[in-house]
Amino acid sequence: MKDLLEYIAKALVDKPEEVSVNVVEGDRSLILQLRVSPEDVGKVIGKQGRIAQALRTLIRATAVKQGKRAIVEILD
Amino acid sequence: MKYSFFPQDFKEKVSRGELSEEMIEEKIVSPEGEVLVEVDGGLYAAAIAQKLLNLLTVEGKAKGEELTDEIRVNIAGEDLGSLIGAQGRTLQAFQQVLSAMVNRRAVVNKRVLVDAGGYWARREEYLASLAKKVAMKAIKEKREISLGPFSARERRIIHLALQEMPGVSTESVGEEPQRFVVVRFNPAKK
Question: What is the ipTM of this complex?
Fold first, then answer.
C-alpha cells in the first residue's frame, strides 16, 4: 500500500525525490502519511480535492482486503 | 500523443517499463533539456494502468487504445469485483488517478476512460435503454422527468443516448454528488 501511494504521488509531482510515505500500523487500522514538497501539495490534492479523494478510495479498497481501515494524510 | 518529461522523470519511466523504445515514435531533447516524445497514448496509459494493478494486487491485464479525443483502457481478468467496487466507485477512483498520471506530462490532455470486466459496457447499455424508456414517457405525458443522481460519465451516456431523439432535450442539474439529468418534453426539437 505504501508502494502504491508512493508510486502515484511520484508520478504527479514536480519533485519526486521529496515524496515519502510513513506508515503507522495498528491492529485494525492503517495511517499512511504522504509527504510531498509544499509546492506539490496541490498536485496530489487536485481540483476540489478530487485526486486526494480518489487516492483514499483506492487505498481503502486495498486495505479492506487485509481487513483494515486505512486513513491517508497529506502533509507538506 | 506528445509528452514532455524532465530527464530524471523520463529515465524512471523507462526503467519502470512505462516507456520503451518500441513505444516511442519520435524523441527530441529541448534546449532546456526536457525530453519530448511522441508515444501512442494507449500503450502509455496501459503500461501505467498495469503497474497500478500490480500494486493493487489485482490480477488483470490492461490494454489501451488512443482515439481522436480520448484514451480508452480496458482491463480484463477473472476477479475484478474489488477493482470495480460498489456502484463502480473504486473503478472511478482508478480512472481519476490514472487520468492524472497519464495527462501529467501530456502536451495536450485527453480524457482517459477505464473499463474493467465489461462493467461500463453493461452500464452503458442499461443507462441508454433507461434513457430511451424515460424519454418516451416524457413525450407521452408531455412533462419532464429527472434521473439520478449520476456521475459525470453516467450523465454523459444519457445525454448522448438522447441527443438524436426528436421531442426531448436533456440537461444536467444540481451540484455534485447530487447531480441529476432532466429529460424534458420539447416539441421544438427535431
Answer: 0.95
